[in-house]
Write a structure and sequence with these properties.
Number of strands: 7
CATH topology of the domain at 91-167: SH3 type barrels
Oligomer: single chain
Shape: elongated
Order of helices and strands: HHHEEEEEEE
Strand order of the largest sheet: 4-5-6-7
Radius of gyration: 47 Å
CATH class of the domain at 91-167: Mainly Beta
Largest sheet: 4 strands, antiparallel
């Protein structure tokens, strides 16, 4: 019985080892030979040539010196506005305008005064007084605001006017 089982195994193995799949193997070999990829050759890389920067020694067209030369040549820089440096400073000129608060209005006879709070002190101002650190001249005081004209120095050294207002504060913020 043992011999019979051994003979059956040998016959089964011999049956599997035949050449019945030979044409299939040949077809696969031919297909894999033709499947090689075709890659185009890499392009030739040109060597990098840096461009020299030649404008380093030239003047900056947007620099303040260039603008100053143009304004002086055109006569635009001849400003007649100048702050009066000889007059005595008023107490409210020690504070930046942003820190000052208009807290009320006072009328005596026909004169209107504005009440301005700086730090913990209250000051009475009228048209013609100065306040703020930019030579702010008070031009008008009414019930709602204090209007003033400030003198600001630009990059060219010329003085320009700027209109500012100080609005009446309804409630004091703490």
């Amino acid at each position: 019985m043992r011999r019979l089982a051994m003979l059956a195994c040998v016959l089964a193995l011999a049956a599997c080892g035949g050449e019945q799949y030979g044409d299939l193997k040949e077809e696969l070999n031919q297909l894999t030979r033709d499947m090689r990829g075709k890659v185009a050759p890499l392009p030739v890389v040109k060597p990098y040539e840096p461009v020299p920067y030649l404008a380093g020694d030239m003047p900056d067209p947007f620099g303040p010196t260039k603008i100053e030369l143009v304004t002086r040549a055109s006569g635009l820089g001849a400003s007649k506005l100048q702050p009066d440096q000889t007059r005595p400073k008023e107490p409210l000129e020690a504070f930046p305008l942003e820190t000052l608060r208009m807290v009320g209005v006072l009328q005596q006879s026909k004169q209107t005064f504005g009440l301005v709070k700086a730090d913990a002190n209250l000051y009475r101002v009228r048209a013609g007084n100065y306040m703020g650190q930019n030579f702010g001249l008070i031009t008008e005081v009414n019930e709602n605001e204090i209007r003033l004209r400030e003198l600001i120095q630009d990059a060219g050294g010329d003085w320009t006017e700027r209109a500012s207002t100080l609005q009446l504060q309804e409630k004091e913020t703490k």
